[in-house]
Amino acid sequence: MHISLTAIVVDDYDPAIDFFTTVLGFELVEDSPSTTNDGRPKRWVVVRPPGAETGILLARADGDAQRAAIGNQTAGRVGFFLRVDDFEAAYQRMVDHDVRFVTAPRTEPYGRVVVFVDIAGNRWDLIGPA
After folding, report:
1. Topology of 5-128 in CATH?
2. Are strands 111-117 and 100-101 parallel, antiparallel or unpaired?
3. pLDDT, tens digit, 9 for 90 and up, residues 39-80
4. Which of 7, 24, 26, 69 would bridge 57 by S-S if both were Cys, CB 3.0 to 4.6 A apart?
5. What predicted TM-score, i.e. pTM, was given to this entire model?
6. CA gyration radius for the chain?
7. 28-67: string of b/e by CB count within 10 Å (b at 16+)?
């Protein structure tokens, strides 16, 4: 048993795909036409880190309640954790792409960490070896 996907509500598919693939280095696993429960067109868009089993479904907001959740899916807390082997390289790639950081990089008992904000406004920890 494993978690296959988690969803992140985004404003639009293409900028979200670009952020996750270009800025974070994820793979675009799937981008297929789909429909909502009531038959309107949407896309099924999945990204994931290279070699990972668990992916992220980039779900375009549908309706006012979902639009209100963009960037606040975890009530302002860090809700996503991206572990990398080379913290400095990943951090520098993100700096080069003007990612917004909430904290400065620091060393904790569990490794190097910095909090950043994704394209939708959600907080993430970038975590690397100490």
Report:
1. 2,3-Dihydroxybiphenyl 1,2-Dioxygenase; domain 1 (3.10.180)
2. antiparallel
3. 999 999 999 999 999 999 999 999 999 999 999 999 999 999
4. 7
5. 0.93
6. 15
7. eeeeeeeeeeeeeeebebbbbbeeeeebbbbbbbeeeeee
